Amino acid sequence: MDHDAILKALAHPVRREILNWLREPEKHFTSQEHPLEMGVCAGQFERCGLSQSTVSAHLATLSSADLVTTRRLGQWVFYKRNDETIAAFRASLSDI
Amino acid sequence: MDHDAILKALAHPVRREILNWLREPEKHFTSQEHPLEMGVCAGQFERCGLSQSTVSAHLATLSSADLVTTRRLGQWVFYKRNDETIAAFRASLSDI
DNA sequence: CATGGGAGCGATATAAATATCGGCTGTTGG
DNA sequence: CCAACAGCCGATATTTATATCGCTCCCATG
Asked: Which nucleotide lies nearest residue B77, CA to C1'?
């Protein structure tokens, strides 16, 4: 668990919003044609209003902090919240 | 039902073999990572030993004769036997 | 014997989503 | 004030399966 990377990743409102959306995909991504069990498709997050390249960078930040898991299927990448890492991080916060 | 196109499509052993394989996908395409309910992925048919471009042409012939149905998902195309057309064709054979 | 069509191949094009790059801006620490 | 850096964008690269192109070969029909 890269504590530093996690804190940096959480230091941006859009990335926090993405993590929040991923708590209840079925509430926020009803328009997705792929089954939500596979995760949420990267393109779905462009609803935050930023460009594709920027969204891709935000997702990469979340992923390298291991706050999300990814699964590639062909041209698509699907994202899920990584509650394991998040729980471990939350636990480690008690040290602060 | 394009009688002529169907006869031309059936006039090649590889295309007939493809149609036969599609009668029981679960017997012949166990290696496919996609669910077989979506159909059989085009690339699977390269097992006939021909090149990708040739296989693609054979599949296009079958498809334009409506002997198979296709479903595209991203970069993949999935094929199913079109038993409806085949039945109609079989019925029309009684005219010969 | 010519020729047109079907079959085959390698090479290249296409398509679609995502990733990366280069440049610009705004902010912050020294 | 300057340097570093995060964020942003448009443009371009990447990836992977499939489609198309240009060419050759072979056979059958005229």
From this structure: D18
Chain B neighbors of A73, CB-CB under 8 A:
74
Q: What is the pLDDT of residue B95?
A: 67
Contacts of A26 (CB under 8 A, 6+ apart): A36
ipTM, 2 decimals?
A: 0.87
Please answer whether residues B80 and B24 qualify as being in contact, where contact means their C-beta atoms are separated by less than 8 angstroms. no
C-alpha distances (whole Å) from A32 to each of A18, A23, A29, A45, B41 are 15, 16, 6, 11, 22
Q: Give the nearest nucleotide to A79, CA to C1'.
A: C18
Task: Compute the distance between CA of residue A62 and CA of residue B19 in angstroms, rounded to an integer.
Answer: 46
Which domains are assigned to chain B? Answer: 3-95 (1.10.10.10)
Chain C: positions less than 7 Å from a protein CB are 6-11, 15-22
pLDDT digits over B41-84, tens only? 999 999 999 999 999 999 999 999 999 999 999 999 999 999 99
State percent of chain B over pLDDT 70.
98
Nearest to B2 by CA among B95, B61, B89: B89
Q: Across residues B13-32, what is the average pLDDT?
A: 97
